[in-house]
Design brief:
Strand order of the largest sheet of chain B: 1-3-2-6-8-7-14-15-11-9-10
Order of helices and strands of chain A: EHHHH
CATH superfamily of chain B: Amidase signature (AS) domain
CATH topology of chain B: Amidase signature (AS) enzymes
Largest sheet of chain B: 11 strands, mixed
Shape of chain A: elongated
Distance between the termini of chain A: 34 Å
CATH architecture of chain B: Alpha-Beta Complex
Strand content of chain A: under 5%
Strand content of chain B: 15-25%
Helix content of chain B: 25-40%
Mean pLDDT of chain B: 96
Radius of gyration of chain A: 19 Å
Largest sheet of chain A: none
Mean pLDDT of chain A: 71
CATH class of chain B: Alpha Beta
Number of strands of chain B: 15
Shape of chain B: globular
Oligomer: heterodimer
Order of helices and strands of chain B: HHEHEHEEEHEHEEHEHEHHHEEEHHEEH
Radius of gyration of chain B: 20 Å
Helix content of chain A: 40-55%
Distance between the termini of chain B: 18 Å
Structural class of chain A: mainly alpha
Number of domains of chain B: 1
Largest interface: A-B, 51 and 68 residues
Number of helices of chain A: 4
Structural class of chain B: alpha/beta
Chain lengths: 101, 467
């Protein structure tokens, strides 16, 4: 069955999310992207240091045999979070921690 | 066509049992005794129960029979046995939430609100059901209690984290179970075990006296073998509850009597882009459902990949916050897979979490706009049928991906903003798979009407397993 693709505003927004962002914020976001530091998630020693420092700060005792799994998962979180981090939003966007219809 | 309860107690629906009890064909005690016998016979294979409250169930059944004998009107679920994921409080039992640690917790002093409401409608609690540890799971595996098994193939996953709930319902142990769904934990096991599952709108059903996982994403809801059973249970459980801070103060909107309205006038589209099916079985199921509904229009849910990412980040970090104290002193008592993810979540930068929450509001606004044009959206529930227990990776297209993290790729972007969904099972051989019917907030009636219509057309059904 052939389906028609709905032409609607949200779909267009999907392909160009920056449109919703005020010009000033969009420029700032572009600048941030341009000058972004090398991805931390690609540097295993950085992850290792982050695990050590966070464990100390959070008073989380970590056994040596757990480190591999923790580093893998932290790297995964940071990599996936990049999708959110790079998405430009207006500065006045409120967090939506609880859904209300 | 299902047999009547009198001839086939092993596969009776809640609707069948309630009708038979109300008409005097069945006693509640006989229903409970048959249910307990089935659990003794089959649960050693399925491993779906972690506790059976036999004496309580028999006492409750006897009281129902006596009330009927006195001429009291039976409730809409009178005589219907049900069980609950073991994160629901059951008075007199510790709420273990799939963990080793919580077994040492004091016993619950009161039932969870939804248990109370189902029992007020006449249903009979049978016991507590296996689940993934602390609900951080899509597989149905549990290092402490063993995996709950898929009734259609005992070597395969039930799905998680409400794996025991799906296994018990699909295996014919009980017609009705409760589960929770943070990122897909009702819909994924419903899909893998081939039953119906309802994840209501966030805030619709009370979570009071359940063990939490991710407060801003946690939902609770029913699993059953028909859409009508889902509706009966859902209607009995609705209502404001001040003991759940996010439970909406809305009037009960009964759905069961609306199911026969069908789908005339409903605008139904198929989610495209991110939600494109990736395996032959998921494509077949989606096409079959879409064709039956005449859904010939695609619609794109914008930025769904980022929604899934944001849900992933929020889950990891909120879950970690919930468990931080326990991780400091009892980390060795967690499932290592769960422990490592929770500890990693505790270490994720807060700035990313706030960004994920901000994105959530943007995404919600975009998706709600879609519902001005359509009434329901169809999407796959899982990318594939049930993987083998213990399987670590699967192929999706050309990519080999971890099973545990990716069984919920289609469910996470939907629960992220609390939309109501019914998972409808397409009975494929040898294994079933479900499709999500997604509706606008507070329109569970739309999703359930569509599910019921598909069932009446014979397109979706809970397959009876070869047990």
């Amino acid at each position: 069955m052939k389906r028609k693709v709905t032409r609607n505003r949200p779909a267009r927004t999907a392909s160009k999310p920056a449109r919703r962002v005020p010009a000033k914020a969009s420029a700032a976001a572009k600048s941030r992207r341009k000058h972004r530091a090398p991805a931390m998630v690609e540097q295993p020693d950085v992850i290792d240091s982050l695990v050590s420092a966070s464990a100390q700060a959070l008073r989380l005792p970590i056994e040596r045999s757990w480190r591999g799994g923790i580093k893998f998962n932290l790297q995964l979180i940071l990599r996936i979070a990049t999708l959110v981090d790079e998405f430009p939003l207006p500065d006045d966007t409120e967090p939506g921690p609880v859904f209300h219809a | 066509m299902l047999d009547t309860p009198a001839t086939d107690a092993k596969w009776s629906t809640a609707t069948d049992i309630a009708a038979a009890f109300a008409s005097g064909q069945l006693s509640a005690v006989s229903v409970v005794e048959a249910t307990l016998a089935r659990i003794r016979e089959r649960d050693p294979l399925l491993n779906s129960f972690t506790a059976v409250v036999e004496q309580r169930a028999l006492a409750r059944a006897k009281a129902l029979d006596e009330a009927r004998a006195r001429g009291q009107q039976a409730g809409p679920l009178a005589g219907v046995p049900f069980a609950v994921k073991n994160l629901f409080d059951i008075a007199g039992l510790p709420t273990i939430a799939g963990s080793k640690i919580n077994r040492e917790a004091p016993s619950a002093r009161r039932d969870a609100m939804l248990v109370e409401r189902l029992e007020a409608a006449g249903a009979i609690l049978i016991g507590a059901l296996n689940m993934g540890e602390y609900a951080y799971d899509f597989t149905g595996e549990n290092i402490h209690d063993g995996a709950s098994r898929n009734p259609h193939d005992l070597d395969r996953m039930s799905g998680g984290s409400s794996g025991g709930s799906a296994s018990a319902v699909a295996g014919g142990l009980v017609p009705l179970a409760l589960g929770s769904d943070t990122n897909g934990s009702i819909r994924v096991p419903s899909s893998l075990c081939g039953i119906f599952g309802l994840k209501p709108t966030y805030g619709r059903l009370s979570r009071a006296r359940t063990f939490p996982f991710v407060a801003s994403l946690d939902h609770v809801g029913p699993l059953a073998r028909t859409a009508h059973d889902l509706a009966l249970a859902y209607d009995a459980m609705q209502g404001f509850d001040p003991d759940d801070p996010v439970c909406a103060d809305r009037a009960t909107e009964s759905v069961a009597q609306l199911l026969e309205r069908g789908t005339d006038g409903l605008r139904i589209a198929v989610a495209s882009g991110y939600f494109k099916c990736r395996t032959a079985e998921s494509c077949y199921a989606l096409d079959r459902v879409a064709s039956a509904l005449g859904a010939n229009r695609d619609i794109e849910i914008p930025q769904a990949d980022r929604a899934r990412a944001a849900a992933f980040v929020i889950t990891a970090t909120e879950g970690a916050s919930l468990h931080l104290d326990r991780l400091r002193v009892r980390a060795q008592d967690y499932d290592p897979d769960v422990r490592d993810r929770l500890i990693a979540g505790a270490m994720a930068p807060a700035a990313l979490v706030v960004k994920a929450q901000k994105f959530r509001r943007w995404y919600r606004e975009q998706v709600l706009k879609l519902f001005t044009e359509v009434d329901a959206i169809l999407a796959p529930a899982t990318p594939c049928t049930a993987p083998l227990i213990g399987q670590k990776t699967f192929m999706l297209g050309d990519a080999e991906l971890p099973v545990r993290a990716n069984l919920g790729i289609y469910t996470q972007p939907i629960s992220f903003i609390g939309l109501p969904v019914v998972a409808v099972p397409v009975p494929l051989a040898p294994l079933p798979i479900a499709v999500q019917v997604i509706a606008a907030p507070w329109r569970e009636d739309v999703a359930l009407r569509i599910a019921h219509t598909l069932e009446a057309k014979g397109v979706v059904a809970a397959m009876r397993p070869p047990l």
